[in-house]
Amino acid sequence: MAAEDALPAPRRPDPAGASDGPVGSGPPARTRVVLAEVSRRPHWPAGTHTELTQQTRVGEALVRGLVRAQLALALQLSAVVMVGLGGLPWLFAIAPSVGRMTVLGVNLPWLLLGVLSFPFLVAVGWTYVRLAERNEQDFTDLVQRPER
Amino acid sequence: MGNDFVVPAIVAVTLVTVAIGFYGLRLARTTSDFLVASRVVSPTWNAAAIGGEYLSAASFLGVAGLILKYGVDVLWYPVGFAAGYLALLLFVAAPLRRSGAFTLPDFCELRLGSRRLRTLATIFVIFIGWLYLVPQLQGAGLTLATLAGSPYPVGALVVAAVVTANVALGGMRAVTFVQAFQYWLKLTALAVPAIFLALQWQADGRSAVTPPDGSTFRTATTVVVEQRAVLTLADGQTVEVRPGDELSFAEGEPVPEVSGVANGATDWLLPSAAGSDDRGLFGTYSLILATFLGTMGLPHVLVRFYTNPDGASARRTTLVVLALVGVFYLLPTIYGVLGRIYTPQLLVTGQTDAVVVLLPEAALGAGTTGRLLAALVAAGAFAAFLSTSSGLLTSVAGVISTDVLGRGSVRGFRLATVIAGVVPTVLALNVSGMDVSQVVGLAFAVAASSFCPLLVLGIWWRGLTDAGAAAGILVGGGAAVTSVLITVLGPGLTGWPATLIAQPAAWTVPLAFTVMIAVSLATRRRAPADIGRTMLRLHAPDALRS
User: Fold this and answer.
1) Interface mutation target, options B316, B533, B534, B542, chain A, most CBs of A under 10 Å
2) How far off is chain A from B545, nearest CA to CA, in Å?
3) What transmembrane ranges does the database entry give (chain A) (predicted)?
4) Does the pLDDT of residue B135 top 90, yes or no?
5) A1 touches B at CB < 8 Å
């Protein structure tokens, strides 16, 4: 439980302050209320996620890891789209014979762009949602594990 | 052209829109209801509403018109319009929802804490919103003029008035219901006639779309030219035509070749080839970049994300939207292709945007079926103008009321709505002659060169500073805005300059990213001190919030 000693959590002035926001002490920063909930800070259950909210090194590293994982996933899937769709104009340009091929009486470019591109995009999107949720689940499990 | 079903159909759509608006008004009691629907909108409704809001005149009329005119190369418009939602899903959806930002200016202030950047973003939101509203009103004028024979300003004024009143009185809550309804209306209005058209084409012996010796007129046709062009007749003679000229063609006479249009089978049917058409290839890639990355920067798209309860549902909603939009975009291609057979005269007149509304009667004849289907299409087209204009107006009015008028009240919002509605109406009455989809494409290019880098770098890169963001928006977005103004107002250019200005995204988007990153690195000290907390807020799973 050595890590616990480093946490400033017990120094919070009162329980009300803890539920108000991650920064429990000091005068609250002046915030401008706009249409959105810009001024609202997320509410964290006290104690369990203190490392994240108190910006300890461990918490910071955890968040960096999650952001990196999500960004890598998004970049990988956009690379799939860049090759799968973005490569088509180039392919048709350097190999005009591909553009002249017909499938069921329809020229291949029409079929690929007009019909097949849409299910392809949905499939990539579906994959992303699944994998991104898995990344988040891993992160949640990591954070909520009682002992590290 | 007298189709007596058209006006009742349009009136019905407008009345239903207004009726749902007033139903919503009864439910909207608080300011929060009014502006953001209190976030009680269910994901399915929300996805349909986003789709309904997104499928504009450009999608409903413009895409088919462009396909009729230019062929396979412009299939990238519908693909890009749909793929924009994938980019939004991958890079923006969940973190943006978690940020709690309602508008792009909100996001600027939240992420970078700069009031000046907020003001800059406000200016761009208003510019993009108006640039996108003009073609909607233009499309309304064109549709009514084509089908009911009214003067061009009538349609534009009707849509502007209905939408302004509806948004000012009903607010966002009403808009959500209206738009969900309008997605399904638009889908039906294109899908049902498409089935009839396909059957008719079968019955006509599946006429070749690109016959080897050129298209011919199926019936005797008289054409009134609307745009200057050079025609090449079948005997090789060239004729210069001006707006107002009347040309008559006999049944079976070949369609003349029109300058500025993909005429021959190879031109229309096959993609740009390297060497012979490098500029076409550049234009294609520029278009891909603009549409893929522009969607996330459109003001009316972003506002919708606030109506999701949390980040994960924002992601799921976006996926559903992608599917709904994808299904819709299968249809305009059918109209563009069959237009080649049944309405070749539009190539001569230049009014290719009218293909969707004219095709049912042209293919099925002026009997009851043809006229009913034409009325259905007209109703769908009006749903497109009404829904997209409502969404755009809501978001432009939202930023005007909070950032320009400086009030968050319902009264302020109503005043802002009127201001936001009048300007594009005046513009729409004074411009014409541009393809609806092309104007919308320019709006995408501006969004992709200004807000896309801001959102992507703001969400994923800790190093972004307010100075970097402002410089990137000013240089990249400014270059795109300049290109738009040159295209719309300026002198006609030829060759490479024309291509670079007409499809600017391929150079303005990289420019915006480069400037934003370089200036941020140079002003590293200005990076917000609480960036760790902001990143946590944007990316931490919803389950960890209470």
Assistant:
1) B533
2) 6
3) 71-95, 107-129
4) no
5) no
